[in-house]
Amino acid sequence: MSELPENPATPAETEAAAAHPQRAIKSFVVRAGRMGSGQVKALAELGPKFVLPFTPGQRLDVAAVFGREAPLVLEIGFGMGDATAKIAQTLADHDFLGCEVHEPGVGALLKHIDEKQLGNIRILQHDAVEVLEQMIAPASLAGVHIFFPDPWHKKRHNKRRLIQPAFVAKLVKHIRPGGYLHCATDWEPYAQQMLEVLSAEPLLENTATGYAETPSYRPLTKFENRGIKLGHGVWDLVFRRKP
């Protein structure tokens, strides 16, 4: 039920990655995907307005980009953007910066932006780890969303999961005191790892006892609804940055 791109990595790509495990943290795995005509059109027409350039060493001027002062939420890996658009529509008083390297997903979110006439979303088609390091000021994010990241089911691949101590330690420094980190997964072993890693981070505190109730702003995805009908579970974790 995980919200994965349609074209998985080839065996050769997987083998090559496994041969070089000591690498910098990455928030993504590059997978090819076909672009629909609507996505191509959205990229061409809306990309210049809503897709921001990656500018290493230059902090993002959030107020200038969005044309207002509002709490900023970073979403890492928004997939095809359905949930992102719905959340941005629900939380209209927040601004959302989505990081996604999968180009069809970028095109799909741009279509949602156009259809819903959303002005509070901007996109960076770049690795979120580098965006954090180069463009996001410390203690500036009101929230971070990481929904259904690649679970890397096989045990030997677990080390490739995004939610690891080193990444969380890097991420939390960009969340302002009182801000939150919201993760969700449909793979229980990954949920258990998330709970362990987030609970061990000294700058975070759990807002629940264990897993959280799904916040009202997060809509159920088609993958969740399909899984629920099959009896699958979904686990939300909401942690707060300590003062």
Which descriptors would you attach to this protein?
243 residues; alpha/beta; Rossmann fold; 8-stranded mixed beta sheet; 9 helices; 8 strands; 36% helix; globular; disordered N terminus
Unreliable residue stretches: 1-23, 28-32
Q: Supply the CATH architecture.
A: 3-Layer(aba) Sandwich
Rounded to an integer, what's the Rg over CA atoms?
17 Å
Q: What is the top-level CATH class?
A: Alpha Beta
Total of helices: 9
Number of domains: 1
CA(first)-CA(last) distance: 36 Å
CATH topology title: Rossmann fold
Overall average residue pLDDT: 88
Strand neighbour order, sheet with most strands: 1-4-3-2-5-6-8-7
| Helix proportion | 25-40%
* General form: globular
Main sheet record = 8 strands, mixed
State the oligomer.
single chain
Order of helices and strands: HHEHEHEHEHEHEHEHE
Task: Supply the CATH superfamily name.
Answer: Vaccinia Virus protein VP39
Residue fraction in strands: 15-25%
Would you mind describing this structure in some detail?
The chain is an alpha/beta fold. The chain has one domain: Rossmann fold, CATH 3.40.50.150. An eight-stranded mixed sheet has the order 1-4-3-2-5-6-8-7, sandwiched between helices. Helix 4 links the parallel strand 2 and strand 3. Helix 4 packs parallel to helix 5. The longest helix is centred in the first third of the chain and has 14 residues. It is globular and about 45 Å long. The N terminus is likely disordered.
